[in-house]
Design goal:
The protein starts with 5 loop residues before the first strand and ends with a helix. The chain is α+β, with helices and mostly antiparallel strands. 26% of the residues lie in helices and 35% in strands. The strands form two sheets. Strands 4-3-2-1-5 form a five-stranded antiparallel β-sheet, with helices on one face. A three-stranded antiparallel β-sheet has the order 6-7-8.
């Protein structure tokens, strides 16, 4: 890690699969203009850098999906997606949670998803498709 690296997030998270939960450790780092997300579980590690935290988390999630795992964080939910301004100005730390009715509310992408809301977790592709559907619906 470079000297100018700043750890902005450091927390334990749950990685869920069809029938199990694993403990993982998430670190979010800002370094030299890059946003880095690293998740460690057991002897495994996934680490990606991108222009914002949401994009880096999406890349880490794709690695986890290959292992049948999903991090139980808001940024991995089908009803959560950041605005362009949040990505460009806020480093992708915050995103909108879109309820089925009413106005969206802002959440931190690394906040834990409670066990009773785990059905909201989705793959990266499912999350993008849900966002595309919301945008098409808004255009009508």
């Amino acid at each position: 890690m470079s000297v100018d690296a700043e750890i902005l997030y450091q927390k334990d998270i749950l990685l869920v699969s069809d029938g199990a939960e694993l403990l993982g450790h998430l670190t979010g780092i800002f370094s030299g203009g890059d946003y880095i997300v690293r998740i460690v579980w057991g002897e495994r590690i996934s680490r990606h850098a991108a222009c914002n935290f949401f994009a880096a988390l999406s890349e880490v999630r794709q690695d986890l999906e290959k292992e049948g795992l999903t991090p139980a964080v808001e940024g991995a939910c089908r009803d959560v997606y950041p605005s362009r301004m949040a990505l460009e100005m806020g480093g992708g730390r915050r995103a909108y949670r879109w309820p089925s009715t009413g106005r969206p509310r802002t959440v931190d992408i690394f906040d834990d998803v409670p066990i009773e809301e785990r059905a909201r977790l989705a793959s990266v592709v499912e999350q993008r498709e849900a966002q595309n559907q919301r945008m098409r619906h808004d255009d009508e």
